[in-house]
Design brief:
8 helices, 262 residues, two-stranded antiparallel ribbon, 39% helix, Rossmann fold, seven-stranded parallel sheet, alpha/beta, binds nicotinamide-adenine-dinucleotide, single chain
Length: 262
């Protein structure tokens, strides 16, 4: 099925890089009118104009900034709450400032995006919101206490917002990516000593691409997912299904960026 968003306004927060940018591109390829929201340093206007979208400086931690941005876009049909940060910090090194900032962007930022967008979408009795959660919404990963708490909190937002917005015809779902190659994760992808043991636990034997996450976002945003709300979709190469690891040296080898059977 080819997804088509002709006539639809799509907003992607954090759309100037990585998964957000790939998502913006995919919506444009599916004929949507796309707006990228991002921080000033990421030059959302310039990035957007390079891909046939429009860009606005908007900080998801700041309600007035989001209000002004949604005033410009008009009521969106689709909102992808994707903006997020994630930095390694062990428990004993996690300062209150670090904790508060991570939650401000990843959790409060999604709440503010959702609340601001929903107020404009409800009168139209239609729409779809897709939240960028993570496999870390479900399981632990040492060194990511604040990040994992923020991403786990997003599941509560998805479930509750789906209840409240369903009567208005607005669906709310989440995509939960595993390890995806972006600037956040580039160091691991580049270093076989890190990638090899990590990918050993992924049934598909490799990390994912931003485009593979974007495809899941478009599906959930589209009419093809018309009866899906309050759901989460793992895009993780099977990582969450693999308790003891999939690959071993007896039958396979790690070559380049992935495990392959010999
Ligand atoms: N890369 C992965 O492996 C992975 C895995 C699971 C989930 N995710 C999630 O996917 C989302 C995108 O991550 P990515 O890997 O593409 O990272 P990225 O750094 O390439 O993109 C994140 C974008 O969010 C923007 N952003 C940050 N703070 C913002 C704010 N206050 N207001 C507006 N925009 C802001 C950044 O400027 C950037 O453009 C994040 O929510 C991340 O947690 C990523």
């Amino acid at each position: 099925m080819r997804l088509d968003f002709t006539g639809q306004t799509v907003v992607v927060t954090g759309g100037a890089n990585g998964i957000g940018l790939a998502t913006a591109r995919a919506f444009i390829a599916a004929n949507a009118s796309v707006w990228i929201f991002d921080l000033p340093g990421e030059r959302p206007e310039a990035v957007a104009s390079g891909i046939g979208a429009r860009g606005i400086v908007a900080d998801v931690t700041d309600r007035s900034s989001l209000e002004a941005a949604f005033d410009l876009t008009g009521p969106p049909h689709v909102v992808v709450a994707n903006a997020g940060i994630g930095e390694f910090r062990r428990l004993e090194e996690t300062s209150e400032d670090f904790w508060n900032h991570t939650l401000a962007v990843n959790l409060t930022g999604v709440f503010l995006t959702l609340q601001t967008a929903a107020a404009r979408m409800k009168p139209l009795r239609r729409g779809s919101i897709v939240i960028m959660a993570s496999t870390n919404s479900y399981d632990g990963e040492a060194g990511f206490l604040a990040y994992n708490a923020s991403k786990a909190g997003l599941l509560g937002i998805v479930h509750t917002a789906a209840n409240e917005l369903g009567p208005y015809g607005i669906r709310v779902n989440a995509v939960c990516p595993g390890l995806i190659r972006t600037r956040l994760t580039e160091a691991l992808f580049r270093d076989p000593a890190l990638a090899k043991p990590y990918f050993q636990h992924i049934p598909l034997g490799r990390g994912g691409t931003p485009e593979e996450v974007a495809a899941a976002v478009l599906f959930l945003a589209s009419e093809a997912a018309g009866y899906i709300t309050g759901a989460t979709l793992l895009v993780d190469g099977g990582q969450m299904a693999a308790k003891y690891g999939t690959w071993n040296e007896a039958a396979a080898e790690f070559a380049g960026d992935r495990w392959r059977l010999r």
